[in-house]
Amino acid sequence: MNHLIHSYMLLFNQENFAFKMRDKPDIQIIRQHLVLSCRMLKSRESENHPKRRFNMFSKKNIILLLASATLFVTPVYAAKVYQVATDAAYAPFESVNDKKEIVGFDMDVIKAVALKAGIEVQLHNTPWEGIFATLSSGDRDLVASAVTITPERKQSMDFSDPYFEAKQLIAVGKKSNINNFSALKGKKVGVQTGTTGDEIVQKLLGKTSPNIKRFESTPLAIKELLNGGVDAVVADNGVVINFIANNKSSSLKTIDDATFAKEFYGFAVKKGNKELLEKLNKGIAAIKADGTYDKIHKKYFGN
């Protein structure tokens, strides 16, 4: 009897019979492994004791095999991996490097938050247009993409605690006579579709104004400014400053208008997903408390 159990234990170790599944173990799979094990045991018994018959279906052997199966067939529940959507065309917050990796301030922050919260995340490059729809469809669990928390957005999604303070900034050519936001009336203004820059320009020029030129990304809008297609670009300060810093020959200047209010970025989740929100907020608080956040901020924006 002990010999049978010992042999079965060896079989289990040698054959690596481990079940990784989210739900209960499949009894059919277990049965198949038991039958296979019995056959292998029968073969070993025959080799060691040629004259001894091994009855794999004897009551005693079946009971022993089933009993040992309950000891060694233990399901390993796979931890949930949270799927993160990000529009990786918004440096320094999110972009794709030469190695095709999604990198940036937001990416470092969400990874650090996940580590503190004890969760695992997987990043997905997702176009800005339609990025929030991935939450309602269930394709993504959260959006980490320099998303400004606004009352309008709160109606259709929930937000984590803020993790970054931003504001709008105007980019114009160095020789431009535009010196404030109101001076954009009658001018062609480039914005990224669906951003807060788009929203405030609509309030100034009108929602249906033909002078609002929309682009898939802020860098594309700025390039259109350099080509003379628009007179100005309104966008988040971090992205505008980063573009100019990395394109010193661009002959652009920025205008910080006093009417631009402070904005705050947060991680967006599906409406009502309180469990994930609690984990994210826990992680945000932790990285701010232990200095991790400050190190990440310094890496991208200096002191």
Supply database-style keywords.
alpha/beta, 303 residues, 11 helices, 18% strand, five-stranded mixed sheet
What does the model show?
This protein has about 300 residues and is an alpha/beta fold. Helices cover about 40% and strands about 20% of the residues. A five-stranded mixed β-sheet has the order 5-1-6-15-7. A five-stranded mixed β-sheet has the order 11-10-12-9-13, sandwiched between helices. A three-stranded antiparallel β-sheet has the order 2-3-4, with helices on one face. A hairpin with a 5-residue loop joins strand 3 and strand 4. Helix 1 (about 1-15) crosses helix 2 and helix 4 runs antiparallel to helix 11 (about 290-300). The longest helix is centred in the first third of the chain and has 22 residues, at about 25-50. It is globular. The protein starts with a helix and ends with a helix. Mean pLDDT is about 85; it is low at about 1-25.
